[in-house]
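Researcher: Re-running this chain for the archive, since the previous output was lost when a drive failed. Same request as before.
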Amino acid sequence: MPPIISIQNLTKTYASGLQALKRVDLEINQGEIFALLGPNGAGKTTLISIVCGIVTPTTGTVIANGHDIIRDYRAARSIIGLVPQELHTDMFVSPWDTVRFSRGLFGKAPNPRHLEKVLRDLSLWDKRDDRIMTLSGGMKRRVLIAKALAHEPQILFLDEPTAGVDVELRRDMWALVRGLRESGVTIILTTHYIEEAEEMADRIGVISKGELIVVEEKAALMKKLGKKQLTLHLQEPMSEIPAALAEWRLALRNGGCDLEYTFDGHEERTGIPSLLKRLSDLGIGFRDLNTAQSSLEEIFVSLVSERA
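Model: Regenerated C-alpha cells:
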C-alpha cells in the first residue's frame, strides 16, 4: 500500500533568508500515528503548514493520498484536518455554527448526526449554542478539534495539541485520537513531550534546525532515548575518578563534589548495585543521590552530534 503522505526534497527559505526546512524526505503510512518531536524553531509548524497548504514550499513535492498539494490543492486540502497551536476561530459564533460552517467550507453535504457525534465526543454538546468567547480555554481548544473533524478528514494534524491544556482534555483528546486511528484516520502530531509520543505513536521523527535527523519505530527510538543519569553527591570532593571504577561510565561534576553515572534505563541490569558496592569497598561515601532522565534538548544535541 502506498504511503498516504509522501514528502520529497522539501525545503523552505523565507524572504528574510531563514532556511526553515532543509531537504526533508518523509513517508507516512495510512492509519498510523506519527509523532514529530523537536524544540521550538525546529521546523515542525513550517512542515505541517506546507502539507496543509498554508505555506508554499521553496522546492520539493508533497503528495496527500495521491493529490499534489499545489497542483490539486482543493482535493488535497479536503482530506486534511488541522488543529493549530493558536486559538484562531470566530469568538462571536457558537460551536455548532463553527463546525457546520467548516463542513460546508470543504464542500461536504450537511450531516447533523456526524457533527453531533463530534461535539458529544469532545464534551461540547451542552455548549453547542453558546458563544465561543464565553467558553473556557480548554473548551475553546475542544472547538478547534471539532472544527478540524467536521469534514471527516482522512489525515489529521495536531500541532502541540496538549500545550497548556488541562488533564481532562488531554485524556479526552487521546481517547478521541485512538478512536480516529481505529477508524482509519492517519494522525500526525507535534509535541515537546517524549512521554506523549511514547504512549501514542507508532513511529517518531525528530527534527532539528530544519532537518529531519531521524525517523524510527517507537520502540527502537525510545531505547535510544533511554539514557539516565545517577548523581551521587559525595561527602568529600574528588580530584579524579579512581581506576577501580573504570568499568562504569562516570564523570565528575560540580568541582568534583558530584559523581555522575550514565546508564541505559531500558537495560535489565543497570550496574547501579555493583557500583554502590564498589564505592563502599573503596570507602567513598556520599550524602545523597538522585536520578534524572536525559532532557529532550540533550537528546536532540546527542542525535545531531551523531550525524555531524
